[in-house]
Amino acid sequence: MYRIALLITFLFTHGSTFLYGQERTVEGVLRDAMTQAPIAGAHVRAVHARHGAVSDAQGAFRLALGEGPMDTLHITHVSYAPLAHMVRWTATMNVLQLTMTPMAHAIPEVEVHGEQVEVVFAHPTLNVGDLVVGPDGLWVLVYDRPQLWHREDQAGLRELKGARLYLLDTLFQERASATLHERYRALHVDHRGRPVLEGATSAWVPHASSDAIHWETLPLTTLHKAILPWTDSVPGWLLGNDRRPDFPAFDHFAYDPSGDRTRLVCSVEDAHTLELFRAQYKYMDGRSKVVAMDLARELGVDREIIAGYMTGFHKDRYFHVPYAPLFVVKDTLCVFDHERGVIIRSTVADGVEEEVPIHYHEQRQWAGSVLFDRAHDAVYAVFRSGARTVLKRVDPRSGTLMESHTLHHPFPERLQVYGGHAYYTYRPQGGTTVRTLYRERL
Q1: Where are the domains of the chain?
Q2: Confidence category of residue 200, pLDDT binned at 50, 70, 90
Q3: Alpha helices for 201-337 (secondary structure H)
Q4: What are the pLDDT digits (tens) for 396-411?
Q5: How many angstroms separate the CA atoms of 367 and 370, rounded?
C-alpha cells in the first residue's frame, strides 16, 4: 500500500511533465485567399516557441510549439496581410488549412508632366511672321516691323518690312535664306503644299538648292486665278473651288488637266445670306432696277445677283461667306460643310456621296476653323476657352470629337499642324522679345 501511495503521488507530481515534455508540432498549408494558389516564403512563428518556419513551394510548413495546451501562430509575407491563428494542440490534430489575403501596396503619388513646348526657330532681332511646314522641311518668314500707314482703300492690309525667308531641314537647322526686296503681304500654299509669297506688286515661288533660295516671279493675277483656287490634288485630278469673299456660295470641283474636263464635287451656300443678297433687288428704285436688268442681259448673270453687288450688301456687317474646306483624307474627299452641319464624303472616280453629321461647330468655344495634317491625314477643330487654345481631333468617318490637346502658350498665331505636331508663333504679352516659332506634340 505504501508503494502504491508513492506511485500515485509521483504521477500527480510529475505526470504533467511527461505529457507536456514530449515533442509537440503543428503542420499547415498556406494558400492565397483569392486564387487558392500555394504561398511560398511565408514566415511562421509561434508565440511560445523558440524557432520559426518558412513555407515551401507547396505552401506547407511544420513548426514545433512551445509549452502549454495552446499557442498562437503569427504568419507574415511581403505580399500578404499578416495573419494570426490560435492553435489548440492535440495528439491527433489535423493539418491546418490557412488562407492569406493579398496586400495592396500604396505607390507614392507621381506627378507626370507632358512634353515641354519646343522652340523651333528664334531670330535674335527679327520676328517670325509666317510658316509653311512640309515633307521637305520648314519655311519660315521673318520680318523687321509692320507697315502701319495705308491708303484708305487698303485699310486693314497687312504688309511687313524687312522680310526674309529661311528654309530649315527636318532637324530645324538652317539650309538657306534669302531677303525679300519688296513689302511682303501673305504666305500662301499651293495644291502640293509648297509656299507661294504674295507681295505688293508681284508674287514669288521659292526654290531651294543645296545652299541658296531662288525665286520664280509671277504676276498677281496668275497667283489669284491660277494658283490659289487649287487647294489639293488626287492622282490625275486637281481640286479647287471658286470661293469669293463677296458672295455667300461657291463650288468645290475637280479638274482633269490631261482630258480638260471638270467635275463638280459639291456646292456650298449660306442659304439665309444668299436670300438676303438676292432680296436687295426688291428695294432698289426703278432706275437702278433697269440698270441691273441691262447688266444681266449683257453679262448673263441673274439680275438679283447684280443688284446685291450694286447695293453693296457684300460689305454689310451681317454678310457671311460659308466656311467649308475640302481635305483629302486617305483618297476620300471630305468637305466640312459647317453651314449644313455635315461632312460630305465622296471620291472623284465614282462620285458617291455620303453625309456625316457634325455638331462641334455648334459649341460656343469653337474658333471657326479646322486644321488638316497632311502627313497623318488628321483633322483638328480649333477651340478657344479664355486665353487657352485647344485642338480636338475630328473623326471624318463619324464626325465625332476624339482626343484633345491644350496648347502651352495663350493666343497662338499662324497655327498649323503637321506630322502630329502643332506649330505656331508666339510672343509673351508685353514682352520685349521677338516673336518665336514653337512646336508641341499632339
Answers
A1: 2-100, 283-317
A2: confident
A3: 220-222, 271-279, 286-299, 303-310
A4: 999 999 999 999 999 9
A5: 9
* Cα 356 to Cα 87, 217, 265, 295, distances in angstroms: 72, 42, 16, 41
Task: Give me 431's grid cell.
Answer: 514682352
- The burial of 229, by beta-carbon neighbours within 10 Å (0-12 exposed, 13-18 middle, 19 or more buried), is given as middle
Domain 2-100, architecture per CATH: Sandwich (2.60)
Helix/strand/coil for 47: coil
Question: Quick one: which of 372, 369, 373 has its CA closest to 418?
Answer: 373
Which pLDDT belongs to residue 49?
76
Residue 120 cell numbers, joined: 523651333
**Chain mean position to CA 172:** 22
User: Across-strand partners of 343?
Assistant: 336, 356
Asked if 138 and 168 touch (Cβ cutoff 8 Å), the reply is yes
Q: CA-based Rg of the chain, rounded to a whole angstrom?
A: 41
Q: How far, in Å, are 88, 96, 247, 285 from residue 69 at the CA level? A: 6, 17, 102, 119
Question: Residues 6 or more apart from 366 whose CB is under 8 A from it?
Answer: 360, 381, 382, 383
- Cell reading at 179: 531677303
Long-range contacts made by residues 65-68, C-beta under 8 angstroms, separation at least 24?
A: 65/24, 65/25, 65/26, 65/89, 67/20, 68/20
The number of angstroms, rounded, from the C-alpha of 54 to the middle of its chain's C-alpha atoms is 54
> 117-121, 366-370, 381-385 — which is least confidently predicted?
117-121
3-state class (DSSP) for residue 288: helix
- Convert the pLDDT of each residue in 295-348 to its tens digit: 999 999 999 999 999 999 998 888 999 999 999 998 899 999 999 999 999 988
**Listing from the earlier edge strand, what are the strands of the sheet with 195-199?**
145-146, 160-161, 184-189, 195-199, 203-208, 213-218
- Calculate mean pLDDT across residues 211-227: 91
Instruction: Please report which helix (H) or strand (E) contains residue 165, including its range.
Output: strand 164-168
Cβ-Cβ contacts under 8 Å for 121 (sequence gap 6 or more): 128, 138, 140, 166, 168, 172, 436, 437
Lowest mean pLDDT among 9-18, 224-233, 350-359: 9-18
pLDDT for the residue 146: 84
C-alpha cell at 229: 483656287
**In 3D, which of 322, 139, 124, 349 has the Cα closest to residue 241?**
322
Residue 235 predicted with pLDDT over 50? yes
Distance CA 300, CA 281 (A): 16
